[in-house]
Amino acid sequence: EWATVQHNVNCRLAKAVVVPDAIPQERLYRYGARNKIRPYEGLKEEYYLADFEPDAAVLSELGLDRSRPIVVLRTPPAVSLYHRFENDLFRQVLDRVRGEQAVVLPRTEDQRAELERTGDWIVPPRAIDAQSLVAYADLVVSAGGTMNREAVALGTPVYTTFEGRPGAVDERLITEGRLRRLEHAEDVKLAKRGGVPVSGERVRRDPALLTDLLLSAVIRA
Per CATH, the architecture of 57-187 is what? Predict the structure, then answer.
């Protein structure tokens, strides 16, 4: 809700603004969303991952040993409207997991080139089944949003290194202890967790409920 540039356009053009119920509706009024808001419970990731079951093939594809800790790192969105900081903390985390089973998912070709020059991390050469990787990981560290919430939805411990103002969804997840805000690289501890993937403990929501909200703009038009 702090991405003012895009929301000032999107909310004014939209007939319905479908958002998590964690976001106070009044935060969106300044974008022209008043009387358009359709809130839904939980995370959108709990809806679209409701019937998802992870595939262990991604571990073999990346040459990962399931008996050793696996950490997945998503680089900061360095080129974006909502993240205007150089993330030194993320660089410190990279140094901390150097030589471990650390899979780094870069956002840009420049980031990829920088990571590949050192050769100290696993950088997939092509698109992979990232959701399965996250489900089997022992820890996720990400400066973004979607992968963090997917980790939460899949039951994987996750740290955020985002340096901007957190949105209401992240604020709620942090309060609930489902998402942790990383302040020091030394807090990253690599250890195997039990029950991978934690399928039975996941929150699975009915995608039809979210679909109905998304279609409400068309149906009511």
Answer: 3-Layer(aba) Sandwich (3.40)
